[in-house]
Design brief:
The protein is mainly β. Helix content is 1%, strand content 49%. It has one helix and 23 strands. It is globular, with a radius of gyration of 19 Å. The two termini are 29 Å apart.
Length: 292
């Protein structure tokens, strides 16, 4: 079910399935991908409890094998409406027999949205409700529509990382979706601005580490922009489908990533796992601001 929150000239729509942001509309102008399945049938799913492809589709936890789907189960799971006001909404998911069959940890997950003017603040809450330590990855996958104006093109836009970045970007293996960190696809040397070019994504996502310390901006030639403020993540993924030249770009803060080809399937060896002790809580906040 879809819900809307409003403030002044801005309307935001969220789907209760995975608490996915579906629309960010300012003054009648849409800034999110419309989930057209011709390109990609989603808009901004949350990636939990894993990010990306799992080698052979399974992990081993305490000697037992569990099937893990790409990007985890949250994006396809109905969440319960927790609270709603005119400019605020939250959704909750508690572990159940269904989740425990594929992810053997008891948890409570709450995602809340607060709209103030043209800024959307999202709070992520995960609590370990079990007696033993809990491990998970968490990622964002928002797809921003491009272009925003009829006179502009995809290649007219740029991403400002907020600082100069030097990074060896790993290779995404196209036949499996795994990430080989030992094989460099592209190297950034003091790069701050990335001009959009579909050809840059011929080998899937650009995976940038470390995550930029400052806010990231997606900027149009008319100087309109979207600011993404997402501190506390480890990796920035940038992606658009190739070769079909989709009209959107994804800016993806990750805490974790797809498996590497040498993984031994041991879940505890996954990259950048978040660990919570019994009753411990993980909190993270990110913001999206439309500047127009």
């Amino acid at each position: 079910m879809q819900y809307t929150i409003k403030d002044q000239n801005t309307i935001v729509t969220i789907n209760s399935k995975g608490a996915e942001l579906k629309s960010f509309n300012v003054n009648g102008k849409e800034f999110m991908h419309d989930a057209n399945p011709k390109y990609w049938g989603r808009t901004a799913p949350y990636l939990f409890p894993n990010i990306g492809t799992i080698k052979d589709g399974y992990v081993t936890i305490e000697g037992k094998d569990y099937k893990f789907s790409k990007h985890g189960f949250l994006r396809d799971t109905e969440m319960e409406l927790y609270e709603q006001k005119e400019n605020y909404i939250s959704f909750i998911l508690n572990s159940s027999e269904v989740t425990l069959s594929s992810f053997p940890y008891e948890f409570k997950l709450i995602i809340s949205y607060l709209l103030e003017g043209q800024t959307l603040t999202v709070k992520l809450f995960v609590k370990n409700c079990g007696e033993n330590p809990m491990y998970f990855n968490f990622g964002l996958h928002p797809a921003f529509k491009i272009p925003w104006n009829d006179t502009e093109a995809f290649e007219d836009y740029k991403i400002d990382l907020g600082e100069e970045i030097s990074s060896k970007l790993p290779t995404v293996l196209l036949d499996s979706g795994l990430i080989d960190w030992k094989q460099t696809y592209k190297e950034f040397n003091n790069v701050r601005v990335i001009k959009l070019d579909h050809e840059d994504y011929s080998h899937d996502a650009l995976c940038i580490e470390p995550y930029p310390k400052h806010d990231i901006k997606l900027i149009s030639p008319s100087k309109e922009s979207i600011t993404l403020s997402a501190p506390g993540f480890k990796t920035l993924g940038i992606w658009t489908p190739y070769p079909n030249k989709a009209p959107f770009i994804c800016l993806e803060p990750w805490y974790g990533c797809a498996d590497n080809p040498e993984t031994d399937h041991n879940y505890l060896n996954k990259k950048d796992l978040i660990r919570l002790e019994s009753n411990e809580i993980w909190l993270n906040t990110y913001q999206l601001t439309i500047n127009c």
